[in-house]
Amino acid sequence: MTDETDKPRREIVARRTLMLGTLAAAVTGAAAAAAPILPQDGHAPGHMLLAAGEGEGEGEGEGEGGEGAVPDPTAALMRDLGFMQGHLRAGLALYEAGDLDAARTHMGHPIKEKYDAVAAPLAERGLDRLKAEITALADAAEAGAPMAEISQLYDRVAATIDEARADAPVAHRIAGLIALTRVAGDEYTVATEGGKLANLHEYQDSWGFLQVVRDRLTVMTDGADADVAKAAQKMLDAVMATDTVFGDLQGQGDFNMDPGAIFGAAARMEFAAVRLK
User: N or C, which end of the chain has less CB nearby within 10 Å?
Assistant: First the structure.
């Protein structure tokens, strides 16, 4: 995906953690070797495969052919819904912080980059209203609407996305979150090319995707299934450890510029999911 913001790209040199990156890469490789195959009933997380097959993105290269690919269409839908919500999540935070130009760009991307990929399965579920709801949010942001209105429109979008997730088996929801975490790693890799913050927009994308992953895992930790809740907590702990690779939304602050930390979190999530029976 290209950076469409007009803001100057900040040349920020941050501390790189080579050892952590190397360990994370090793864990990711081990996960690839250990990944089992999806059972026919679709109720166990055996399809937590590493990226393979067709690319993740529809539009401008978001994870295309990369780590976010998943072999199951329901898991792919879960990933893609999170992808769209992650853009909106970043846009919402930027709007609240007063960076309206960047917020508008993020809020416009779900329709431009991803909606075509989810249109058919959403229509099958009677949820094709999502396009109009996202468009209404983006239009309100363009018009400079009050934050209260923006939040209300976002909540409406989030409710429809949650409805789309509701009938998916937990295995597919988890697979989508793992894939989305890897997309966040891909984005962060682009954002920090050359050991500096070279693409602020991709950095914000990565942050937004991981916020969605955290939110969904938090919900799962409160679920009735004790095994799922336990695994979700382990996954949540792994994702929360990636806080060290982010500063603020503008890429300011002291942080470890290490994409491997995000890929390592995805691998640890996968290991936690495999333990589910």
Answer: C
Q: Are 137 and 88 in contact (CB under 8 A)?
A: yes
Tokens of 109: 């991307």
| Rounded CA separation 206/182 (Å) | 9
State the Cα–Cα distance between residues 77 and 75, nearest whole angstrom.
5
Do residues 140 and 149 touch, judged by C-beta distance below 8 A?
Answer: yes
**78 close to 42: Cβ distance less than 8 angstroms:** no
Phi/psi for 15 (5° steps) reads -70, 125
Residue 140: phi and psi, rounded to 5, are -65, -40
The HSE-up count of residue 144 (CA atoms within 13 Å, CB side) is 3
What does the longest C-alpha to C-alpha distance in the chain come to? Answer: 50
- pTM for the whole structure: 0.78
Q: Are 97 and 249 in contact (CB under 8 A)?
A: yes
Digits of tens for pLDDT over the chain (277 positions)? Answer: 434 333 333 333 333 333 233 333 333 333 333 333 233 333 333 333 333 333 333 334 344 335 567 779 999 999 999 999 999 999 999 999 999 999 999 999 999 889 999 999 999 999 999 999 999 999 999 999 999 999 999 999 999 999 999 999 999 999 999 999 999 999 999 999 988 999 999 999 999 999 999 999 999 999 889 999 999 999 999 999 999 999 999 999 999 999 999 999 999 999 999 877 5
Domain positions in the chain: 70-167, 169-277
| Sign of the alpha-carbon torsion through 260, 181, 38, 121 | negative
Tell me the C-alpha distance between 252 and 10, whole Å.
9
